[in-house]
Amino acid sequence: MSACRTKNVMNFSNKINNYTPEGRKFIHENIKGISTNEFSYLVENPIDNKSIEYNDNRISLFSAQMGECRILGIRLAVNDFHCHHIKTINDGSNDKYKNLVIFHPDIHQLVHASETEAIYQLLEKLELSSKQIAKVNQFRLKVGNFMI
To answer: Per-10-residue mean pLDDT for the chain, 148 residues long?
Structure first.
């Protein structure tokens, strides 16, 4: 017994507790990124041809990103966003939370676009800054496309 050590738990709060009304209230106050209606819509309208893991992570990611596009930073409508696989399915990807990101539909098209004309049209429409283009290029390279 002399070799046993104890360790104090860091960043632990008694407030966070799933089993008490006060604890649940505290948890839900920190999840104000999306409304109850938006959450209900996402739960009731999963993507049919995708896995349960994908659909669950899609909801979690929308909430974590507070409904904002990762590139544009604008609030997206609950029925008008795309959930992008960072590493593609063809490359042995999965539907894990870390492999998904929420994009505006036009940004998603730009990430996957390979025709020069389509890329120019999307760039003209979106009017991206150099920082935003750099972020898009990171995702384009991961799907095997050339930099813009």
So the answer is: 72 71 74 81 94 94 92 94 89 88 97 95 95 96 92
Does an H or E element contain 100, and which? strand 100-103
- Residue 111 CB contacts under 8 Å (≥ 6 apart), including other chains: 84, 103, 136, 139, 140, 143, 145
Tell me whether residue 107 is in a domain: yes
The one-letter amino acid at 148:
I
What pLDDT was estimated at residue 98? 94
Element (H, E) at 96: none
**Polymer length of the chain:** 148
Sign of the torsion formed by the C-alpha atoms of 101, 126, 106 and 82: positive
Number of domains in the chain: 1
> Is residue 3 a part of any domain in this protein?
no
* 3-class secondary-structure state, position 85: strand
